[in-house]
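Closing statement on the zinc ion sub-project.
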Amino acid sequence: MKQLIVVADMEGASGIFEHNKSWLYNGTQDWREYGRECITFDALAVCWAAVDFGIDDILLYDAHYAGNTEFNIQAEKLPLCVRVFDVKDRCFDWRRIRGQAAQHPFGLITVGQHAREGTPDAYFPHTIQSPPIKNFFCNGLHIAEIGSAVLSFSGVPYLANVGCKASMAEALELSDKIVTIPVKDKAKGWEPSHFETYQIIYDGVTKALEWADAATGVNLEPPFHFSMELCDGYAFDTGADISWKGSVGVTVAKWEAPSVEIGLELFSCVRGLLRKI
Ligand SMILES: [Zn+2]
């Protein structure tokens, strides 16, 4: 069995730009009528390229607006071999997600991805949630959603990133062997529709699957050192007692964990200490 892992966000989906950003807002009428179709088309292109290549099992995590029950991707339109990860309210429960996948999946593809907070010429750049989060590091790697997904699947060949042109930097820092598949480019004013990018994604993913032997997974060595810095206007509660290994400064918190998944769970604890000032 050849299993492909697909992790989807939405800010980097085809057809969604500043002028129609309401399409991103999970639960709204615009999202229901227009936005969902955009990310569904991108996911369809990834999945059909995979099926045509010979992938027979696809596990999909729909991560946009994690915490909300409603899926962004219209999973019922995807090929029959696509299953969605069983996670409560689609929350970032990376340990549970990793546990549901095969020990050695064929590869990992990220789709609908956006750039990190502070990236120029990017559509909707942010680091998991910005504000309040300005940046997030794991063992020296500057990561956001793409990095969280890729590090949670450590060792799994990272094949391709589909999304905003500016999101490619984070993906390439994780693995320079990936195929990059931009679907919009703010610097160039390139804003194609999701109909126009379907074939681009399909062709790019096909190439990535054909080149899978050359792809590599990300392998960091434990212990894992994490740090989170806050945007202006936010601060950590430095007086709080913490039960994990780490330190909490006014704007930067650091912690250490024996695995990426545990470190990402502690991320939520650290986040609980921040407040607006
Ligand atoms: Zn998102």
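Residues 9-11, 64 surround zinc ion (CB under 6 Å). With this model delivered, the sub-project is considered complete and its resources will be redirected to Aim 3.
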